[in-house]
Design goal:
The chain has two domains: about 160 residues, Peroxidase, domain 1, CATH 1.10.520; about 90 residues, Orthogonal Bundle (Peroxidase, domain 2). The chain starts with a helix and ends in a 13-residue tail after the last strand. The chain is mainly alpha-helical. Helices cover about 45% and strands about 0% of the residues. It binds protoporphyrin IX containing FE and 2-acetamido-2-deoxy-beta-D-glucopyranose (NAG) (2 copies). The site of one 2-acetamido-2-deoxy-beta-D-glucopyranose has 5 residues, from α13 and α15.
């Protein structure tokens, strides 16, 4: 609805003979540009106070992604690495990550090439670690590994269902910790590996170098509940610098989801009829008609109809590429919440497997 009314105004400028720019025009153009791309454009962490001349190439890249001038997807795999343990491998921060990604990828794809329960859990875990942060929590919480490292956080109610993947993260971390990796990075690399392990899933730019915290995220109430009202959820995400369109894009992760604890009588019921595929059916089936075996969360149903979200929801329902681009950009943001050394991270996107772009 919003996009339509804006383009009507936009068209007006060009088809009205003798139209002259007036003060509102720039604002309208600005908004149009944002409509085209995304609506979350705030900087995060150290990028908020670093002087432009102090930015590293990674700092500049991430600044571009966060402000909407650079995409969050990248399709240039280079999975060839020197032998693990060699001097050459030690000299390259991303090298060990190639071995880790190859190791965990096996858990994320079934023999039909679709993504598994471990994959959906890893995607959710990435979100739940990072989402323990808001603009009001300061330099605490966020993508710091605490969802695994602080037992109290793991036991919180919204994290029900994540115990198995948390245990698995500890095993993987134990196996690779002698290479100096952080739990926070393992969680986010696993989330991005899981996403691209789903057919049609985006290949999200992936950074490493986060610091770990054993302290549980500061307050409860930072994670969403499926029984929250849409306006509350919109504000909850805004406090994490995620605007409504960004929220709509992120919710598409429920394309690969299966609920177990909202309604135990429908244990394992998926949120669209193809939970092994990163497709846009979730957007369609949330609006309805909904197939019998599909469970639509109350929060998804209400957000899909919310005036700030409905139009973009319908757009995602018919535009896989649009959704993937928006999701990837927004998830890069999620993966950096509460990270205060963004300028010094390393881009290891190349170690991710190639995206599966077509599915029967
Ligand atoms: C309004 C925001 C959200 C709410 C209320 C919400 C709520 C839920 C709930 C209740 C479940 C089912 C848990 C269970 O019964 O096992 C779930 C699953 C899941 N969610 Fe969300 N979620 C939200 C946003 C997100 C976001 C932003 C992501 C990722 C970026 C995400 C990824 C997932 C995934 C992948 C699953 C499946 C987990 C599994 O099958 O193990 N969710 N979510
Ligand atoms: C891939 O990465 C290796 C280093 O791990 C490098 O030597 C090689 O040139 C790269 N290949 C391409 C095609 O960029
Ligand atoms: C959802 O899919 C059905 C069946 O293909 C189609 O008729 C309907 O228009 C779709 N809805 C949206 C919002 O794209």
């Amino acid at each position: 609805m919003k996009a339509q009314s804006l383009s009507a105004v936009f068209a007006g400028f060009f088809f009205l003979p003798g139209a002259v720019a007036h003060p509102g025009m720039e604002a309208v153009l600005e908004q149009l540009k944002a409509q085209d791309c995304c609506d979350s454009t705030e900087l995060l962490g150290d990028l908020l106070y670093l002087h432009p001349t102090d930015l590293t190439p990674v700092g500049r890249l991430i600044e571009g992604i966060l402000t909407g001038t650079t995409g969050g997807e990248s399709d240039e795999p280079n999975n060839s690495v020197p032998e693990l343990g060699s001097t050459a491998c030690q000299a390259d921060t991303c090298c060990v990550w190639q071995y880790i990604v190859d190791d965990i990828m096996v858990y994320f794809q079934d023999r039909h090439g679709q993504c598994t329960n471990a994959a959906r859990a890893a995607i959710r875990l990435g979100f739940h670690d990072a989402a323990g942060w808001s603009k009001h929590t300061g330099e605490f919480g966020g993508a710091d590994g605490s969802v695994v490292l602080a037992p109290e956080e793991a036991q919180r109610r919204p994290n029900a269902g994540l115990q198995q993947i948390i245990a698995q993260m500890k095993i993987w971390h134990g196996k690779w910790s002698s290479f100096g990796i952080s739990m926070a990075d393992l969680i986010q690399v696993a989330a991005n590996t899981a996403t691209v392990s789903c057919p049609l899933g985006p290949r999200i730019r992936t950074f490493v170098g986060r610091k770990d915290s054993h302290i549980a995220s500061p307050e409860e109430g930072l994670l969403p509940s499926p029984f929250d009202e849409p306006d509350f959820l919109i504000e909850l995400f805004r406090a994490k610098t995620i605007q409504p369109r960004g929220l709509a894009a992120l919710l598409g992760a429920h394309s690969t989801s299966r609920q177990r604890f909202i309604d135990a009588t429908q244990f394992g019921a998926p949120q669209d009829s193809t939970p092994g595929i990163w497709d846009v059916l979730f957007y369609n089936q949330t609006l309805g008609p909904t197939p019998n075996n599909v469970f639509v969360m109350e929060s998804d149903k209400k957000l899909a109809k919310h005036p700030r979200i409905h139009e973009i929801w319908r757009t995602f329902a018919r535009d896989q590429a649009r959704w993937n681009a928006d999701y990837a950009r927004e998830y890069v943001r999620v993966s950096l919440l509460g990270v205060y050394n963004i300028n010094y991270l390393t881009d290891c996107t190349r170690v991710l497997p190639r995206a599966v772009r077509f599915w029967k």
